[in-house]
Amino acid sequence: MSNIETIVIVGAGQAGASAILELRGNKYAGKIILIGDETHLPYERPPLSKDVILKPEDTKIEILSAEKLADLGVTTIRGNGVTQINATAKTVELQNGDVVAYDKLLLATGGAARRLPNFDALGKHVYTLRNLEDSQALVPVLQAGQRILLIGGGVIGLELASSARYKDCQVTVLEQGPMVMGRCSPRILSEFLLEQHRLAGVDVRLNTQVAACRLDGEEIVVTLADGEELRADAVVYGIGIVPNAQLAIAAGLDADLAIKVNENCQTSNADIYAAGDVATQLREDGEFRRVETWENANLQAGIFARHVMGVEHPKANPAWFWTDQLNINFQFVGDMAATQWLVRGDMDAAKGADNSFVMYGVTDGQIVAGITVNAAKEMRHLKKMISKNTAFEAEKHLDLAQDLRKIA
């Protein structure tokens, strides 16, 4: 540790903030420099599609205040991002031309919204959601009676559909695939989500392709592949992200779409690390995978901090994430590709926000995944079952009289 005098963190988001807390929590006494493109201090992103829109005056999303950063001895550079890495000299160059030296470098640059150029070309009434300004821009747009067209039926699209319906908008969701949340949800839960949104008045169209779009005065006209025309006051699209890996690629680091890192979050250069949405990590099965979750950003930031300090980091937990839609809390853990799904409780879509049940994902007789619906207190027990390679026993695990805490 004596030779690590300066750690530079590029990216002032969840992973960057978590790395700072982990470093100082593990008694790193050297210099930390946090560099961000945005003028904001680090903030939470999950509320951007929900509370920031619904309760903008009451929602606090800041992770680290200026006072806290000062207390932690962090030098913060805002609104002046990195334009170049010189891995040989171990420096980064900023937009204003300044050069900052590092001993260890963490790239926590996240990702940018994947673009739809045909919609961007319309120039107005078209939105994406990736940062605080994007969320704030939607507050005056999502107003009662407005016709909102959402392109993409993933987590962001459905959370925005929920927020828009709460604001009494007319909402249509276009999803080109056969399922909502198809990338991260089993079909049985996807169908439940679909029914919830339709019961709430959201017009969800699956297997739907957009052929064209145009402006007609202050309306956006979207033509579908079957010739149908939809008119909207605003379009919001969320079709995934593109990792902000350009700096790493230009510096010659090993990358494809994202920056490749090993189990210690090191890139192909041992002094440069990456964490969060920008990193695709080598997993135990020998494959590289990228995980876009709040938890993963924190986990990889912790791995980085502990590794540079020579502190052993714990084995990764099963992947976990959550989404809040239509006043229902959904939490997911483990392998969503499990071969069989079994429900503990009553999976009655008509109950709306009064639903509460647990789902087990089972492969080869073993619990490999779990989902809770308005049953967050049971998630810790599902995580424990997965970590222990628990064999699924229907008479025990589906019995509501059994306390999951006692059988986990």
Automatic annotation (TrEMBL):
InterPro entries for this protein: FAD-oxidoreductase/Apoptosis, FAD/NAD-bd_sf, FAD/NAD-binding_dom, FAD/NAD-linked_Rdtase_dimer_sf, Reductase_C, Ring-hydroxylating_dioxygenase
Domain Reductase C-terminal: 320-407
Gene3D superfamilies the record matches: 3.30.390.30, FAD/NAD(P)-binding domain (3.50.50.60)
Occurrences of domain FAD/NAD(P)-binding (ranges): 6-300
CC per GO annotation: cytoplasm
Keyword Oxidoreductase found: yes
GO molecular function: oxidoreductase activity, acting on NAD(P)H
Keyword Signal tagged: no
Required co-factors: FAD
UniProt keyword annotations, A-Z: FAD, Flavoprotein, Oxidoreductase
NCBIfam families: 3PPDioc_HcaD
Protein name: FAD-dependent oxidoreductase
Source species taxonomy: Bacteria, Pseudomonadati, Pseudomonadota, Gammaproteobacteria, Moraxellales
